[in-house]
Amino acid sequence: MKKILFLLLTLSVVLAACGNNFAKWSKDDAVTVFKDAGLEVDSVTEMTKDDYGMAPMKAEKGVRFLIPSLGDDKGGRILVYDNEDDLKEIKAYYDDLGKGSAILFSWTAVKDNILIQINGDLPEEKYKKYKKALGSLK
């Protein structure tokens, strides 16, 4: 009986140590890679429920950042997810908003467990730099 209990305890410790393989990157990793690429990432602040607006609050963590060249209070979001289904759902939510109304268009990109959503007023060439920087996470 002791051997079985020991085996079960050992197995539970091993499984706990494996953790969540999906949660690979942090919001800080994304901020750092953007700054290292020379991109605008100003006034990074933790997101509150008000920052999500009508979007479902499924992110594990989220931050807003400003892109001063776009004007006052315009920028993007870095959302960190602990499962792929939630990430895909929210990416589709933002992408569908843009398809339904040009005024609600925003740029989105994904790298593993990170979703970025950036104001659609950002020129596509600049958006591609954010996407490329995010994709460079290793």
Question: If you had to describe this structure to a student in words, what would you say it looks like?
Answer:
The protein has 138 residues and is an alpha+beta fold. It has one domain (21-135). 41% of the residues lie in helices and 21% in strands. It has helices at 2-18, 27-36, 84-100, 124-135, and strands at residues 42-46, 61-66, 75-80, 106-111, 114-119. The chain has a five-stranded antiparallel β-sheet, with helices on both faces.
Number of strands: 5
Percent helix range: 40-55%
Fraction in beta strands: 15-25%
What's the order of the H and E elements?
HHEEEHEEH
Secondary structure class reads alpha+beta
What's the helix and strand layout?
Blueprint: H1 2-18, H2 27-36, E1 42-46, E2 61-66, E3 75-80, H3 84-100, E4 106-111, E5 114-119, H4 124-135
How would you sum up this structure in a few lines?
The protein has one domain (21-135). The protein has 138 residues and is α+β, with helices and mostly antiparallel strands. It has a five-stranded antiparallel sheet with strand order 1-2-3-5-4, with helices on both faces.
